[in-house]
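2 proteins. here.
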Amino acid sequence: MPVFVKLARSELRLFLREPAQLFWILAFPSILVVILGSIPAFREPSTDLGGLRVIDLYVAIAVILTLASLGLQVAPQVLATYREHGILRRLATTPARPAGLLGAQLVMSLLTGITSVLLVLLIGRLAFDVALPRQGLGFVTAFLATAGAVFAMGLFIAAVAPGGKAANTIGTLAFFPMMFFAGLWTPREVFPEALRRIADLTPLGAGERAVQAAMSGQWPAWGSLTVLGAYMLVFGLAAARLFRWE
């Protein structure tokens, strides 16, 4: 356990030394909420959204954005780079096993994600009167399920990518279409019915639906949690089978 704690601290320090990652993970989701909340029309209830405001929806979308950035872009690049540079191979000869570094990276990502989400919720509440999650346990469940799904996909990308740059490219190519289905450019609540059904089968679309349900006081739909669990299981098993330490 002391070795694992040291690894986690080391991963956190390395993350904090990267200004670009700090901006996109910790700052950008909150900045997005501030920008959209500053548009007067987005602070007015809309009949097309069932009486919700656009800013209410984008707080949930910002939560998904944080997890997607960590799981699909940061973690795959870091882990693939470690393998490419032989760091994982060298760790195998020390008490700090490669699996410990993998776990430390996931813990660091989860703690960073929680920090970013808390900032988003706090800014949404104080600046734009967005209600805090009314279904607290449901929100935590949706958050962890979405995190599990995207991190499993990130591990799979790290497993198949030959190096850090390739992992970043693959993760970015997956990031943008998935965030489309999560409603980053157009809220999924105004999608046509057929497109909304497709979105519900994607990891980030299902995650946004689950988080939004918890924000509004409902338990996340079991269909959404099932979809997230399926992605977690399939990509997690594939990553475990394909991941190479050297």
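next one coming up
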Amino acid sequence: MAWVAFDRAIKSVEQFALQGPGDKWRDIRMKIHDEVCREAFNSDIGAFVQSYGSTALDASVLLIPLVGFLPPSDPRVRSTVEAIERHLMVDGFVLRYDPGASSDGLTGSEGAFLACSFWLADNFVLLGRHDDARRLFQRLLALRNDVGLLSEEYDPHARRLVGNFPQAFSHITLVNTAYNLSRTLKPAEQRSGHSAHYGGHASAERT
């Protein structure tokens, strides 16, 4: 998110002629990008991980291509998505992390974090896995209650919504995924900077 803050500030300077030390911010953005790529990708498990030096997966890294940090075509993105599919999915939904592998200071089990499941569907779209994206989206829609609302998490064992209810984050990601699946000009592609409508795929160096 630190990289995103600098990246969006730079784009505001470049696109809207706002005032700001663009050269300094570009240098910081590049340093953050280089450090994250060097320290946060665990080549042994083939995925970006929860923290530097960790072996624990965290589904928040699904945001990496969605915010434009790396293009969806980057092999590290693809392998990270595949690792999350193998290790953080329960009954077809995505856990934010494995509480057995990550000490969060809380007792009890962890439900599937619905925003992460929508992010996975968005990644499927960017990777060209449209059928997988639609199937996951339909499964998520089926979790809504009688008035169409979602909570923060879903307990795949008890088969019920859990956590904060209703959760705005879940509904925002639902809307984003719906747009990504239904529009030619997809929000995920626009934010990632890799839409064909914006001059093709940007390279990792430009991020």
